[in-house]
Amino acid sequence: MLLSANDIVLFLAFAGLTGFTLWLLLRPLRAGGALAPQDQGEGEIAIYRDQLAEISRDLERGAIGAAEAEAARIEVSRRLIAADEARASALRETKGPGDPRWRRMAAVALVICVPLLTLAIYLDAGAPGLEGQPVEARLDVPAEELPVEGLVARVERRLKDNPDDVEGWETVAPAYVMLGRYDEAVRAWTRAMIAGGVTAERLAARAEARVLANEGAVGPGAKTDLEKAVELDPSEPRAQFLLGLAEIEEGDREAALARWKALVATAPSGAPWVPSVRARIAALEGGPAIAAEDAPMIRGMVDGLAARLAGNPDDLEGWLRLVHSYGVLEEPEKARAALETARETFAGNAEALARLDEAEARLGN
Known about the structure:
The protein is mostly helical. The protein has 18 helices and no strands.
């Protein structure tokens, strides 16, 4: 493998920075402390020797008597001997690995060896010869070659330059929902309404994102959006469905049933959301979860979702919908097989695995 001059300079720079950082971190080890115990002992010994000399001078000047001088010498000498013994003991304890010389040698060895070892590992396991891949270049590929996150990044880049692009906001908002970024979806729908005006559909979509962000509960902000949406368009299906959920949360089961039955009765022919609303009605009334007329449509949708996930397994929200769908179809074996495949796909992703565990728990209920 051939390295360019820039690669070598970069490696040396990283090694130098690592060494400098280690040098700073290891200063206490290298210095061995501000004042070692044996150094403190040397200072005490010097003080006591000065005191003995001072006693002799005071005796010569007649400042103290002979008896007083002798008593003082005995006391200072006793302290001098104790200090000397303490110094010798401290010196014995610091020999070996704790000796300041060993600490300095260990610090220097770490500063030299750690950067060299890091560089050797990178050269062996890394890819120093790989050309740089700027974000711009990675995004400038056909859309079908990008994952959902890449498509979102591409739209975000466009919106940064053109924040009044209503189509861009309406494109990125559902993608945020798919990725579980519900708060960002709420902001995206808000920007779409600022740029393109308030509509029943946009209000209902923002309310749905707020419900998802609130763990499925219809909070005050979502309910306000839904009520405004049905004022603008009483037939807006998402708003009517979510208002039914709000009525169930408030304990008004009959109002929710009436709302949902009216929604199904006035639905356009072939509306894809009708089966799920019928299933909700059946659940409230204690009937079969899927009406006979809806079974073929639901089966086709589930099979289509499974086929899509086989080609694009990185769609966590899709796996969660598939597991839920198998549960509704009362096919627990297929649901658990889908869970196993999803866990293999997202191995190492703690957040994704936690959501799959939650889906399995709901499946068991």
